[in-house]
Specification:
Blueprint (H helix, E strand, L loop, with lengths): L10 H8 L9 H35 L1 H14 L1
């Protein structure tokens, strides 16, 4: 489903959208939809990574064996 809306963009962004054909897009809306899709995926991936990092930190904090293993590995590198 397509919905028409009005948004405010900076001049530099308008100039980029005007060049949609240079990038293989049939119109500015197609280019903008692709850009939104790519940004959405990137933001979702960052959120997943942050959630994963928090979980790993919680597990590490509770796992003394893992802490000892990491400390021993660091000593081996020194």
């Amino acid at each position: 489903m397509l919905v028409e809306t009005t948004i405010r963009l900076k001049d530099v962004d308008i100039e980029f959208l005007k060049r949609h054909a240079d990038f293989g897009f049939s119109d500015a809306g197609e280019l903008l939809s692709k850009a939104i899709h790519l940004l959405k995926n990137e933001v979702e991936q960052e959120q997943k990574l942050e959630e994963s990092a928090v979980l790993y930190a919680e597990i590490y904090e509770e796992d003394s064996e893992a802490q000892e293993w990491v400390e021993a590995s660091i000593k081996d590198w020194e």
